[in-house]
């Protein structure tokens, strides 16, 4: 028996921005009673901390120091997860577009990824974990029994983000969002360390034309098939 085979199972959900990872990860975790790791939030928190401290986003050593020293926790109340940094709820702040852009830059720094690696693995606990991000199946939990790579066309992902932001009363242009999504895709897919890519043993699911319930059902079917 390997060391990993006695650990709690992990379901990894990787994919580009707006493909539905966060939504599906939360639903699967609720359904199975598993813990949830939103790994993107860690990169967003690092970005926010760096912006707040006026750290130059090109200073890799400083960024790694910021990542290693984050004082953060995730609180759960009424089924909603909030991100708390230095004792303050920053859940809304980390979703701002300028933080999203900074997060994608910060996430390209190898020393930042290294600094956050163990923090992510520490989320693994019984009865299991659902982890969403870009490299959950490739780098952070390579031994996960269930790996999903969720995609959708850039246009559909921009449309979803547009609706999501409008629903929150944020006014944005669909064209700007599509440009942002393409810029982030490019950076996430072409960086040297842990680029966005499906693991060899991942199942690729394209959600462009299927709704959330249908995606959830496909993922749950796969979980049952792989963990029986
Ligand atoms: N299959 C789907 N069809 C339509 N809308 C979806 C689908 N999956 C997710 N969404 C919506 O798209 C938006 C972005 O989803 P989210 O889970 O935040 O994506 P990600 O975590 O991959 O960035 C949310 O408003 C969500 O409700
Ligand atoms: N495991 C991860 C998770 C996120 N990232 C990067 C990629 C993104 O640009 C930022 C923010 O990720 P997040 O998943 O919150 O972003 P989206 O909700 O998909 O727009 O962090 C990463 O490099 N590796």
From TrEMBL:
InterPro entries: Cytidylate_kin (IPR003136), Cytidylate_kinase_dom (IPR011994), P-loop_NTPase (IPR027417). It catalyses: dCMP + ATP = dCDP + ADP; CMP + ATP = CDP + ADP. It is an enzyme of class 2 (transferase). One of its GO terms (molecular function) is kinase activity. Keywords: ATP-binding, Cytoplasm, Kinase, Nucleotide-binding, Transferase. Pfam families: Cytidylate_kin. The keyword Lyase does not apply. It is found in: Cytoplasm. ATP binds at residues 15-23. Residues 11-224 form the Cytidylate kinase domain. Its EC number is 2.7.4.25. Belongs to the cytidylate kinase family. Type 1 subfamily. NCBIfam families: cmk. This is Cytidylate kinase. It comes from Microbulbifer celer.
């Amino acid at each position: 028996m390997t060391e990993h085979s006695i650990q709690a199972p992990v379901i990894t959900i990787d994919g580009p921005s707006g493909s539905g990872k966060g939504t599906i990860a939360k639903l699967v975790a609720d359904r199975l009673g598993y813990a949830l790791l939103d790994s993107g939030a860690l990169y967003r928190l690092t970005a926010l901390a760096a912006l707040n401290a006026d750290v130059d986003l090109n200073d890799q050593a400083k960024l790694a120091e910021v990542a290693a020293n984050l004082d953060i926790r995730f609180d759960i109340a009424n089924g909603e997860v909030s991100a708390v940094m230095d004792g303050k709820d920053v859940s809304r702040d980390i979703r701002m577009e300028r933080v999203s852009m900074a997060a994608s830059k910060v996430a390209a720094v190898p020393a930042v990824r290294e600094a956050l690696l163990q923090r992510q693995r520490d989320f693994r606990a019984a009865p299991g974990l659902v982890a969403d991000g870009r490299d959950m199946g490739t780098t952070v939990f390579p031994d996960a029994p269930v790996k999903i790579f969720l995609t959708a066309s850039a246009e559909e992902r921009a449309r979803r983000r547009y609706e999501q932001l409008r629903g929150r009363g944020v006014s944005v242009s669909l064209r700007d969002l599509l440009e942002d999504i393409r810029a982030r895709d490019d950076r996430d897919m072409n960086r040297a360390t842990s680029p966005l890519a499906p693991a060899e043993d991942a199942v690729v699911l394209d959600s462009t034309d299927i709704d959330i319930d249908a995606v959830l059902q496909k993922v749950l079917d796969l979980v049952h098939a792989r963990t029986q």
